[in-house]
Design brief:
With about 180 residues, the chain is of the alpha+beta class. Helices cover about 40% and strands about 35% of the residues. The mean pLDDT is about 90.
Length: about 180
Amino acid sequence: MVETIGFLETTSIAKGVEAADALLKAAEVRLLFAKPICPGKYIVLFCGDVAAVKSSLEAGVRIAKDTVVDTVVIPRVDPQVIAAINTATAVDGFNAVGVMEFFSITAAVYAADAAAKAAEVTLMDVRLGLGIGGKSYVNLTGEVAAVRASVDAGVREAEKRGFVVQSVVIPNPRKEIFESLM
C-alpha cells in the first residue's frame, strides 16, 4: 500500500532524468513511474515514508533547479489517486460528473487527492498531460453535492499555485458523456 507520494515535474527531460536518479539515491523510496510527457516535460512519481519522500524530493529539486514546474508530497494519499493515474475507473451508476483542468501535471495529483478526501466521490481518471499539450485533468463522479464539494476542494489546492484552467460540475449528464470520459 502506498502511503506517502512525491511528485516532481520539470520542463526538461534531461534534467528530469537526472533529478529522478538523484531522488532515488537520496533516500529509501520506490519509483512508481518516471517518464516524458507533452510538451517535452518530465514527471516522476515515487513513494515511501514521509521523511524519505521529503528528503528525496529536496534532492531532486536541487538537481532540477530552474526546470522545476511543480512538486508535491502527499502523506496518506487517497488510494483512488494512484488507481486513477494508472487506469480509468469504470463507473456503474452516475448522478453527476466533475472535471478539473490544470496547467500543471502535478496539480492534477494534489487536486485529485484533495477532491477524494473532501467527499464521497469516485475518481474516474487522473490524466497526466499525454497528448493534451502538457495540461492535466481529473474526472470524478458521485452525488451532485459531493461532486461540487470535491471539485471545490481540488480547485482550491491548485489555485494556491495558479495552475487552474477550468472546472465544471454537470448534474445528471447524459450516459454518452460518461462513456466519452473513459
